[in-house]
Task: structure prediction
Amino acid sequence: MAEVSVRKVVKEYDGGVQAVKGIDLDIADQEFVVLVGPSGCGKSTTLRMIAGLEEITGGEILIGGEVVNDVPPRDRDIAMVFQNYALYPHMSVFDNMAFGLKLRKFPKEEIKKRVDEAARILDIAPLLDRKPRALSGGQRQRVAMGRAIVRNPKVFLFDEPLSNLDAKLRVQMRTEIKKVHQTVKTTTVYVTHDQIEAMTLADRVVVMNFGIIEQVGTPQELYHHPATRFVAGFIGSPAMNFLPCQIVDGNGGGLAVRINDQILLPVPPARADRYRPYKGKKMTFGIRPEHLFEYHEQGRPGYERVDLKVDVVEPMGMETMVHFFVGNEPVCARVAPETHCAPEEMLPLTADMTNMHLMDGDSGKVV
Amino acid sequence: MSVTTVNAAAAKPAHISRRKSLHQQRLWALWGSYLALAVFVVIFLVPPAYTVITSLKTSAEISAQSGSPWWVNHPTLENFWYLITYPNFQTYYLNSIMVTLLTVTVSMTISVFAAFSLSRMGFWGSQTLSTGVFLTYLVPPSLLFIPLFQIVGMIGLINSFWCLVLLYPTLAVPFCTWIMIGYFSSIPKELDEAALIDGAGYLQMLFKIFIPVAMPGIIAATIFAFTVSWGAFLYPLAYLYTSNQMVLTVGIISDLIRGDVFQWGKIMAANLLASLPPILIYAFLMDYYVAGLTAGATKG
Result:
């Protein structure tokens, strides 16, 4: 087990396209770090550079304190699980898992012991004699994980390992992966574009966009204290609502967020000093759907009423998503399932301003 | 009530007739296919059938004016027995086997290594080289045998079957490499990456992963190399002229046609005996051959 450091790493392809633009990241020993971001953000390239499958254009990668820029993949002591499993189709499950150990000339008894142990952890012991084509998607993914576990490497690398599975199996395998990490405690770098996977699995999440790291933090930090509009919009489902706004003077010497002529929402007094320098500037108001809910007479400080015309109603069972438009901007609220709402009707809502976010209109930085 | 009955009666036959016409269309298409196939089968099977029939006749029966050429009155295996016990024919057969085995081995070794490096190692110019390999295949062998004659002469291999071992791979390697490039390219890239991470070098990757996974393609390419070597006529005709060096294709005609005397019964029997190895190989490996060709065609 080891720590992984990525220092000022750049990846430039032929033609000058930069996939990764000088990122810095330190991953602690035994930590589970998830790289998340949209397609083309550089997350898989970063993982492949750590694996040694892509050459680094600039910067340094360290595994266990050693610079591995020029070390071939086999000598980095890493194991990788691929999106399409990459099992050797002509080998049995046992041989697939034992392949790396055989190449490293482990004794037969040791190989058998390790494969049996991994098979027990992953619950695939009865499948050891089968060929990959005789396995389901979930079983194949377990075998791919088993192949990584038996090597007992310094670092596990996962490249979107659940993307090929159906939704139900994905949730099940997510738990399995977390359980395996809790058992073997190997440093893990996991790439996904699914923010729910990132939030549920990670000790820390790295949000990437256009080849740079937007923010690194625990899932709770990213959710409650996003650093940029991109992170605020990417983390959380449904996504945060964004509305262009201005900070103006409110009642009683306080500040208020002006969305349009009808909507003026007082800023909580605790944030007044922080937001005062942005008065009159072009800003973006952000609020998550769960902080926009049905109106109750008995409010709390920071709860402000806002009335919006319903566009679409999506009952989900334990909650209902209601969609509106404020100007041309879509807005989503998460209301209790018993709330009466119908398209084209006005619905009184509560905006929980204690959980509001304010972003610079140009840079997108949260202030 | 009566109106309802009339409507129902009118609707039912229309529905059925549509289904019937679809069925009939399919029937016509099937019969058409069978007819076309029957024509092909007749065209392709008449020569071998005639060969079998003639090989079972005595020379007297073949040259007799009476009787049908499509019927054997006094079947005999004397032509086959003659050839099996005829030392020259045994030499041709052994030479053919030797040349073919060596050609297949040399061609496949070169092709597998070439295809692996061209499709997987991604070095500078590999794409151009791949195209170049295929373009080489398009040069007709009949254009090459005269300049090659000079080269073979220079290295002193005229009238030695070893010249064929040297020359046949020039015909087989481009096509085999092309098939193998297609096959290797169809293997997911993650498989090599997984092998690299598991600790394999390029040679281990080739022998432990690529060759077993690409076995249908390798068999298809092997059959092609075999066919090229076993059936080639022009090169042995041009370069070999003594019986001890000849292979089956030229040995049969040079030995069994003396002046204007054609020993048809023996020629036909020799053809059948010479066809035996390809027939056996095709019969056992046909499925692999077709699978391999398809992969090469779609991915190449």
